[in-house]
Amino acid sequence: MVRTMKKTVSVLLSALFLCSGCSFARAAETDEPLLCREAEDWNALFDRRGRLTPGWLAADGIYTVKTEENKAVFIFSDTLIGKSDETGKPKNAAMANHSAAVLRGTQPLPQHMTYYFGANGARWDTGNLFGGRYWLFDCVYLSHTLYILAFEPNETWKPRNVRLISVPVVNGTPDFSRYSVQEASPALCLWPSDGSYCYAFGQGITDHSQIDGYVYIYGYKDPLQSFESRDLLVSRIKAEDFGDFTKLRYWNGEDWCHEIERAADIAENVSCEMSCTRIADGPLKGKYILVYMHACNSGDLMYALGDSPIGPFSEPVKFFTAPENGQPAANGMDTLYAYNAKAHPALSPEGALLVSYNVNSSGEQYTTDYHPRFIYLSLTPGEEPSQQRTVSRLQAFLQKVLRFILRFSKRH
Predict the structure, then answer these.
(1) If phi over 0 gives left and psi between -120 and 50 gives alpha, with beta otherwise, what is residue 299?
(2) Which one of 58, 177, 210, 247 has the fewest CB atoms closer than 10 angstroms to its CB?
(3) pLDDT at residue number 325
(4) What's the predicted TM-score (pTM) here?
């Protein structure tokens, strides 16, 4: 009996070693690309066809952050509110500038998703959740408060200014009736007098406070004569100072400086919205991954790897092309385009990143067109996301069996 059990333990240890080898052997192969696949489960969450009761139908500009009580907050920009028929055609619909949602858990279950729109999130009108004409940049959760950076566009869709919206969070859910809006900060948005560029910060936020005490806020240098070419910038602020943006500092390529105009480019041709995520496990553990869409709305999703939240970053790699780009819109008159890719680490499974991008058209929006699309991006080079999760589940199962056998052997 004892000999048989020892043999079983030996076999299990060998299996665990081989499974681990699947990951560790990949660690040296970082020149292999990161692979992806469509996330049908998350795509289905935003299928809002056949909504007979007025409510949230579709949106773009999606960002997410985890709070507490195993909840995640979604914030959206332009939001379609009303009814829809079975084809996704809106009925008696209106467009708000922004909205929000709260998901219980991290699984894309419609019954666990609550949408907030209208004044103070009351859901009885089609107005803006935060009153003003704001489009929402990224958000961060600190000290029981949801902080959202928001911009007001000018007539050419450049950011006129950037403001901070603060929302108290109770039991994981923002209390949208108690939000406050801070005055526009020149530390977050500046138009130099020469009229060549504008500088805007907030398109991505990385909470690094558990590692070095800082929150990193990404921005862009936006050429005023072009809509597509933006260069990525980065700033940082101590987590306890968040909101006092006089203490924001900008990376100038060598050090942190006070002047927004001296911020150095760390990546080129990024989209209006993006993300920088620290990889927490696997062969790329400790690396940082930028995710964005090349030139804003090209349809080409890119990633680049770096050793810190300020880079330097590798040459960008195209890992997915949005199939919707250039396709006919459901309204039968317009053409679809894709834009603004980013990762959602708060909703990502082990070993992969959940990535979204937006789809839009210039005419009447159908819910089947106008909603975020999702894909899983593996964080193990050369390995598809589904394969990696299978290995992880097998490792976990073998570890449970091994622990059970070891406990059993000690008793006998």
Answers:
(1) left
(2) 210
(3) 95
(4) 0.87
The whole-number pLDDT of residue 177 equals 96
Helix residue spans in 100-159 (DSSP H): none
Q: Determine whether 232 is exposed, middle or buried from the number of CB atoms within 10 Å of its CB (0-12, 13-18, 19+).
A: buried
Containing 140, the helix (H) or strand (E) segment is strand 135-142
Q: Judge contact between 118 and 126, C-beta under 8 A.
A: yes
**Residue partners of 374: CB distance under 8 A and separation at least 6:** 38, 39, 42, 43, 354, 355, 356
> Residues 6 or more apart from 234 whose CB is under 8 A from it?
216, 217, 218, 219, 250, 251, 263, 266, 276, 309, 310
For residues 338 and 324, is the Cβ–Cβ distance under 8 A?
yes
Compute the distance between CA of residue 234 and CA of residue 397 in angstroms, rounded to an integer.
Answer: 42
> What is the number of residues in the chain?
412
Residue with tokens 């968040």: 242
- H or E stretch at 390: helix 385-411
Q: What is the identity of the amino acid at 234?
A: V
| DSSP state string for 239-306 | GGGTT-GGG-EEE-SSSEES-GGGPPPSBSS--SS-EEEE--SSTTTT-EEEEEETTTTSSEEEEEEE
Name which of 163-172, 225-234, 323-332 the model is least confident about: 225-234
Tokens 């082990």: give the residue: 350
Count other Cβ atoms within 10 Å, centred on residue 309. Answer: 22
Report how far apart, in Å, the C-alpha atoms of 54 and of each of 126, 162, 248 are. Answer: 10, 31, 42
Phi and psi at 402, nearest 5°, equal: -65, -45
DSSP 12-55: HHHHHHHHHHHHHTTTT-TTSPPPEEE-HHHHHHT--TT--SSE
Instruction: Count CB atoms within 10 A of the CB of residue 307.
Output: 12
Least confident of 262-266, 364-368, 383-387: 383-387
What angle, rounded to 10 degrees, do the helices at 385-411 and 2-24 form? 160
202 and 217 Cβ atoms separated by less than 8 Å: yes
Q: Look at residues 377, 273, 293, 315 and name the one whose alpha carbon lies nearest to residue 59.
A: 273
pLDDT band with cut points at 50, 70 and 90 for residue 145: very high
Tokens 């069996």 found at = 401
